[in-house]
Amino acid sequence: MANSPLFTQAQYEFAAHIRDPKTNPKPADIESRRMKIYTDLFFNNVEDFISNTYPVLKSITAEDRWQDMMRDYFSHHLSHTPLFPEMPREFLMYLENERDNPDDPGFMYELAHYEWVELALMTSELDEDINWNNIDTEGELLNNRPVLSPLAWSFTYQYPVQQISDDFLPEAPLEQPVHLLIYRDNNDEVHFMELNPVTALLIQMISNDSELTTKEILENIAEQMQHPDPNVVIDGGMKIMHDLKNRNIILGTYKS
Q1: Does some domain include residue 177?
Q2: Are residue 161 and residue 238 in the same domain, yes or no?
Q3: Span 136-147, pLDDT tens digits
Q4: pLDDT digit string, tens, across residues 99-136
Q5: What 8-state DSSP symbol labels residue 102?
Q6: 177 neighbors 109 (Cβ within 8 angstroms)
Q7: Which long-range contacts (CB under 8 A, 24 or more apart) does 64-73 make?
Q8: Residue 14 sits in a domain of what CATH number?
Q9: Three-state DSSP class for 127?
C-alpha cells in the first residue's frame, strides 16, 4: 500500500475502517461524525438483510451475540460476489467455513441452510431452463421416465430444523436424520414437506437417473428394502408419485 497512489490508500483506509472500526483507524482527514454515518449505514444494511433472511436464527440468538456475529462476519468475510441478493449465501458460507465458536449451537449451520433455501428457491430462475417440448405433462407415470421439477430440492438434516424455535432448541442430533423436500409451486410459493426414508430415496433416484422409468425405480427400491412383495412397494410408490404430480413436484414424463 505504501507505493500506491494517495487516493488508493485513502480508499483502502476508508473501507477498512467501515469493515472494522475498532481495529482500523479512520482516514485522518475525515470528521468522526461523518465517518460514523458511513460505518453505521453499511453495517446496518448488511445486518438488516441477514436478519430478514434468517429470522429464526436471529430470534433464538441473544441480541449481543447476534451483533457480535454480524460484526465478525462483516469484518472478516471476503465475499465472492458484489451482488446484494447473494449476501445471504455469503453469510451461509461464513457459517460453514469460517465461524468457529464453541458456544454456538450445534444446529446453527443446518438451521441457517434451511432458512436460506427458501430465499434461494424464491429467487431461482431454474424454471426458465425447463424444456417443455420434451415433457408430456399428462404422461402415464408408471412405465415412463418421470420429470422432477428443478424447483424441488431435497435435503437431509441431522437436526429437526423445521421445528427449531425459541421453545425448542435441540441439544443433540437426531438418532435418525430428517428428510425434507422444499419446493416452489406454480404460484411462486415455497412449501416444505417432511419425507419418510422411502419417499426421500424415491426423490433421490428420480433426480440422479433420468433414464429409469418409475416402475424400474420402485422395483429397485423394493430390492433395496428386500421387500417380499415388490408390488406393494410399487402400489405405494405410485400413490406418492401422483401426490407429487398434483403438487407440481413431478412435472410429467419425458417424451420418447
Answers
A1: yes
A2: yes
A3: 999 999 999 999
A4: 999 999 999 999 999 999 999 999 999 888 899 999 99
A5: T
A6: no
A7: 65/103, 69/99, 69/101, 70/43, 70/46, 71/20, 71/43, 72/99, 73/46, 73/99
A8: 1.10.150
A9: helix
Quick check: is 150 in a domain?
yes
Phi first, then psi, for residue 169 (nearest 5°) are: -125, 95
Q: Which residues form the domain of 75? A: 1-104
Residue that terminates a domain, selected from 74, 104, 134: 104
Q: In this predicted structure, what is the pLDDT of residue 35? A: 78
| The predicted structure's pLDDT at residue 11 | 76
Co-location of 92 and 199 in the same domain: no
Supply the Cα-derived Rg of the chain in whole angstroms. Answer: 24
Contacts of 76 (CB under 8 A, 6+ apart): 20, 98
Q: Which amino acid is at 63?
A: E
pLDDT of residue 96: 96
Q: pLDDT value at position 193?
A: 95
Measured in residues, the chain has a length of 256
Contact predicate 159/105, CB 8 Å: no
Q: Across the strands, what pairs with 195?
A: 179
CATH number of the domain that 134 lies in? 3.90.930.50
- State the 10-residue block means of pLDDT for the chain, 256 residues long: 65 76 78 83 90 96 96 90 85 95 96 96 89 95 96 97 96 96 94 95 93 96 93 96 96 92
Identify whether residues 77 and 4 lie together within a single domain.
Answer: yes
Question: Do 187 and 172 contact (CB within 8 A), yes or no?
Answer: no
138 contacts 252 by C-beta, under 8 angstroms: yes
pLDDT given for residue 5 in this prediction: 65
Q: Which residues of 16-32 are buried (b: 16+ CB within 10 A; e: fewer)?
A: bbbbebeebebeeeeee
Number of domain units in the chain: 2
